[in-house]
Amino acid sequence: MMPGYTTRQTITGMCLFAILTLPQFSLAKASQRYPYQSCFEVSAAMHKVPLELLLAVAATESNWDADAVSSANAHGIMQIQWPGTAKHLGVKRLGELYNPCLNISLGAKYLNELLHTYNKDTQTALAAYNYGPTRISGSETLPDGAKRYAAKVLSKQSRIKKGLVPEALQPKSHQNLVVFDSRIRADRLAAHLNADIQGATVDVVRTQRPNGGYAVVLNVGNAGLTVQDHVMLRNMGWALP
Phi, psi at residue 167, to the nearest 5°? Predict the structure, then answer.
C-alpha cells in the first residue's frame, strides 16, 4: 500500500488542503474552463506533473467522461486499469475509481512515476501509460500504436498551452445562440460578439420558423474557440459543452 492512498477520505483531505494553499487559485474561474479543473490543478501541483499534460491525457483517454470504461478494464476520467494499475496505486475498491478527483490524482501520481522511470522522456512515459510499462522498453522500440497515442496527447497538450479548448469541449461548428424577432437586436448582439470572440465569427440568419425571426449563429473557426471565448460565452448564459 502506498502512503497517502489509504482511504478515499485521505485523498479528499489532501486535495482540499492543496486547494486552499495553492497560490492564486480561483475555484470559480477554474471551474469554467475544463471539467474538474480544480482537481486537475491540485493534482498537477501535488504530483509535480505539467497541468497541460495531465489535461491532455484526460482528453485523450476519456473525453472527460468520469464514468468511462474501456475494453481493457480501465476506468474513470484518467482510465486507471483495474486491478493491476489501481492496486499498484493503493486502490482497494473498484468504485473508488469513479470519484473524479481521486481518479485524476491517481492518474497524476502514475504519470509522475512513469516520467521518472523513463528519465522525463514524455513520449515514452505516455506510451507506457497507454500500453503498460511491461510492454515498453525504450523510445527506440515503441509500438506504432503507442507512438500514435503519445503524438495525440502531445498535440492536445500543445493546443491547451495555446489557450485553445480541446476538441471534445468545442461547440458545434454552426450553433444557434439565440433567436430574436427583431433584426436590429440580432445585429447588435452579433456585432458585440464579433468584437470580442477570437476563434469564431457570429452571423445573423433568417430562421425557417413559421413566424420568422433572426438567429444569431456561432461559426467556430478551424482552430477552435480559445479558453477566453469559451468562458465569455458561458458567462453570458450559453451552456456550451
Answer: -55, -40
Q: Rounded to the nearest 10 degrees, what angle do helices 37-47 and 51-62 cross at?
A: 130
Q: Distance between alpha carbon 51 and the CA centroid of its chain, in Å?
A: 10
- The distance of Cα 156 from the centroid of its chain, to the nearest Å, equals 9
Q: How does pLDDT run across 58-95, given as a tens digit for each residue?
A: 999 998 888 888 989 999 999 999 999 999 999 999 99
- Indicate the domain borders of the chain: 8-161, 170-235
Which distant-in-sequence residues (6+ apart) come within 8 Å of 166 by Cβ? 34, 55, 56, 59, 156, 159, 160
Cα gap 61→171, rounded to integer Å = 20
Buried b (16+ CB within 10 A) or exposed e, 162-174: eebbbebbbbeee
Phi, psi of 126 (to 5 degrees): -65, -40
Architecture of the CATH domain 8-161: Orthogonal Bundle (1.10)
Q: Please, how many CA atoms are within 13 Å of residue 175, restricted to the half-sphere of its CB?
A: 15
